[in-house]
Amino acid sequence: AEMAAARLSGGENRLVSLPLSRIRVIMKSSPEVSSINQDALFLTAKATELFVQYLATYSYKHGRGKEKNALTYTDLSHTAEECETFQFLADILPKKILASKYLKMLEKEKRDGEVRENNDEGEEEEDEDKA
């Protein structure tokens, strides 16, 4: 731990590239967390870094990135949608759609919601008739 702490204090041979202060703030934002052990902070940072590398590599290999020699947002969102391991990211990396398409979707959801509410009222009335 002392070696890790020494390397984390600065210099170019840091063991993690993510800013530990930011990770500490994120960890402390959880109400259950009162104090954060330096080793736990370091391991969380390293695990996060490795996860991001894995996500990026997987998305690059399985996306169209190889054709363009680039990793795109579309590659990442496709991975979140298609790969079971990354499906928990689907809300964070949604597929990009046009604003007009999104507004139509919202309108349809609103209409469907109204139809459902009207149907529910009808069912309650039927139940009362039977009683």
Structure description:
Residues 109-131 are annotated as: Disordered. InterPro entries: CBFA_NFYB_domain, Histone-fold, Transcr_DNA_Rep_Reg. Residues 120-131 have a biased composition (Acidic residues). With 131 residues, this protein is mainly α. It has a domain at 37-119: Histone, subunit A, CATH 1.10.20. Helices cover 66% and strands 0% of the residues. It is built from 6 helices and no strands. The chain starts with a helix and ends with a helix.
Could you name the CATH topology of the domain at 37-119?
Histone, subunit A
Q: Number of DSSP strands?
A: 0
Mean pLDDT: 80
What class would the helix/strand composition place it in? mainly alpha
Radius of gyration: 24 Å
Helix content: 55-70%
CATH superfamily of the domain at 37-119: Histone, subunit A
CATH architecture verdict of the domain at 37-119: Orthogonal Bundle
Shape: flat
CATH class type of the domain at 37-119: Mainly Alpha
Main sheet makeup: none
Along the chain, the helix and strand elements come as HHHHHH
Distance between the termini: 72 Å
Into which percentage range does the β-strand content fall?
under 5%
Unreliable spans: none
**Number of H- or I-type helical stretches:** 6
Biased composition (Acidic residues): 120-131
Protein name: Chromatin accessibility complex protein 1
Domain Transcription factor CBF/NF-Y/archaeal histone: 17-78
Keywords: Acetylation, Coiled coil, DNA-binding, Nucleotidyltransferase, Nucleus, Phosphoprotein, Transferase
